[in-house]
């Protein structure tokens, strides 16, 4: 199975900050990494698919990049409503596997 | 509006069975692969199963293979997850999710989840 190692586990940030988190795949997954946001008590929501494609309706402060084994997710101007857990997922092959998540907290 | 509504969760004893349902609306159900994803309490996300549009092909991780069965009824726009030989480690919120048409493994719509607790 492909292991997705996500870092950091948590981040303390301020509104307006630039936030960057990473995901490393245990083998080459091409550009097949997606990013999901999960707010407390809610179901996950797709933000980025195939590494860098913003899903419909997702604000442009959310961006993704990377290919092969190393991927990055960035929030360019952190807003209070962006407080959440963020998960990467490899969608290259079964079994689909998720990273362990990055929790964003207010500093 | 795309809606996925899970039902059938609850408390079940180890070794017993439970069947989850997911009612889909707001899109043409027959055109989409569908999936189940679970989340144990305070833990991360784990993909559990995927089914193709006709129901002829199914996919599972080793953790549930042979115990869980995903199925669908296209006439009823409904997705199911039959869970047998349940273990305490199956305790989780189970989400029904829709795979996108353009990128089959990506999941672009999720239900609110059904809670399953496996305990004696």
Please tell me about this protein's structure.
The complex is a heterodimer of chains A (107) and B (120). By secondary structure, chain A is mainly β. In chain A, strands 2, 4, 5, 6, 9, 10 and 11 form a seven-stranded mixed beta sheet that branches. In chain A, strands 1-3-8-7 form a four-stranded antiparallel beta sheet, with no helix packed on it. The model of chain A has no long low-confidence stretch (mean pLDDT 96). Chain A has strands at residues 4-7, 10-13, 19-25, 33-38, 45-49, 53-54, 62-67, 70-75, 85-90, 97-98, 102-106. The radius of gyration of chain A is 13 Å and the shape is globular. Chain A is built from no helices and eleven strands. Chain B is an all-beta fold. Chain B has strands spanning 3-7, 10-12, 18-25, 34-39, 45-51, 58-59, 68-73, 78-83, 92-99, 107-110, 114-118. Helices cover 0% and strands 50% of the residues of chain B. Chain B is globular, with a radius of gyration of 13 Å. Chains A and B meet through strand 4, strand 5 and strand 10 of A and strand 5 and strand 10 of B.
Q: Structural class per helix/strand content of chain A?
A: mainly beta
Query: Helical residue percent of chain A?
Result: under 10%
- Quaternary organization: heterodimer
Summarize the main sheet of chain B: 7 strands, mixed
* Number of continuous helical runs of chain B: 0
Low-pLDDT segments of chain A? none
Mean pLDDT of chain A: 96
Number of helices of chain A: 0
Percent in strands of chain B = over 45%
Topology:
The complex is a heterodimer of chains A (107) and B (120).
Chain A: E1 4-7, E2 10-13, E3 19-25, E4 33-38, E5 45-49, E6 53-54, E7 62-67, E8 70-75, E9 85-90, E10 97-98, E11 102-106
Parallel strand pairs in A: 2-11
Antiparallel strand pairs in A: 1-3, 3-8, 4-5, 4-9, 5-6, 7-8, 9-10, 9-11
Chain B: E1 3-7, E2 10-12, E3 18-25, E4 34-39, E5 45-51, E6 58-59, E7 68-73, E8 78-83, E9 92-99, E10 107-110, E11 114-118
Parallel strand pairs in B: 2-11
Antiparallel strand pairs in B: 1-3, 3-8, 4-5, 4-9, 5-6, 7-8, 9-10, 9-11
